[in-house]
From TrEMBL:
Residues covered by region (Disordered): 154-181
The keyword Acyltransferase belongs to this UniProt entry's keyword annotation: yes
GO molecular function list: acyltransferase activity
One Pfam family in the UniProt entry: Acetyltransf_8
Source organism per UniProt: Nonomuraea typhae
UniProt-recorded name of the protein: Lysine N-acyltransferase MbtK
Basic and acidic residues: compositionally biased ranges: 172-181
Amino acid sequence: MFDWRPLREEDFPLLAEWLRQPHVARWWNHETSAEAVARDFGGVIRGEEPSEDLLVSRYGRPLGLFQRSRLADYPGYRAELAAIVEVPDGALTIDYLIGDPRQVGRGVGAAMIRRFVERTWAEHPYATCIVVPVVAANTASWRALEKAGLRRVGEGDLEPDNPVDGPAHYVYRTDRPTEAP
């Protein structure tokens, strides 16, 4: 149902189109010129950033973007989160968007997150948990996290991606499943 592959430079025009969609632009607040997309997403492709940008497809059609990072690779951000919730060694964080507006509000986001979490455990054996901050006003995003099985573990103030938002965030977490004895 869902497939992922690393984002490539030839995906930048599609990504820019998604970032311009009102349902994405509201929360990502990202410049969409070709230069800005290349600047902001090219570092991962070139190996200059320690995170992952993955193009998501559903039934072979591009659907959205997933970002995945080890919080240890971003100590300032980890410290901000640690002021609100416990951030254990091995914690990852994710971000995501559904670019295709026809897929929004149909349960696709929760299914995509659930599958991505499962894939994360397989691909990152050191990962202990996934910690995801979401601006409190982004109800669709935190509801998708809840439907995907993540639980709210904290609330606090973080710098919002979009300056029109207040600093209030909810923090969600899921832990690596343990094997039954």
